[in-house]
Specification:
single chain, alpha/beta, five-stranded mixed sheet, 13 helices, elongated
Amino acid sequence: MRYAFILSEKAVFKASRLCRVLGVSRSGFYAWCSRPESQREREDRKLRVLVREVHERSRRAYGSPRVHKALLTQGLFVGRNRVMRLMRQEGLRGRPKKRYRRMVESEGEQIVAPNLLAQRFEATRPNERWVSDTTELLVPSGRLFLAAVMDLYSRFVVGWSVSAVNDRHLVLRALDMALRRRCPGAGLLHHSDQGSPYTSEDYQGVLSARGITCSMSRRGNCYDNAVIESWFSTLKFEQGERFESMSVAKTELFDYIEVFYNQERMHSSIGDLSPAEFERRNHHRAA
């Protein structure tokens, strides 16, 4: 390791001085430099490139467990400890999740649905249980709101929309995308908080017209909708919550949600597969 450090720093400091400071001989260092690269070293050099590629493709979010699993899915049978070592040497780290913060508020006396989901965040087939919520993002002109609808079967974000106003139109657009994309049949349970956009007549009318059963969190209980709350936290940490403009926000959110999260990002609750890959692999069982 000391020889490798000298080699990496000799463009800045004289090799003789580095050898003296680190307590190694110059002859030993130059002998090490002329020594042929071992097979292990060649493999490590190639693996470093692949490890960095996986880490960058994950928006620098993956730690060694997910980087390791991503390499295994590519047919590279490498040990977890080796991946940890290479990431440490390259200065690569995963991003730990931040705790999510609740931001829901109902307006006035609303007629709300009972909590039928009851924190059962699993589903046996697509379009069995959806969860929906909104969160706040930032642009230079002020606040920006994102509404999302997620299928609990695969954690696939089936609908989303952004707006400068957090109202029923925002959540209706996200719901409309989800309905057009998935065309759910009978038996779908839709869960949300008690916010006024979700208790509005327009929103409830769409659910009723499509035969969708409505479920709502208990007032002030963030755990009743914890999955999508956690997803918002992940999005803000991996993608960021500040954007240069509304148009930039739409472009970057599309890239994160549709390209990265739905299609590529591994999710521990579904066997470290992406939502899209999980649905593809389980299509015959869900059909």
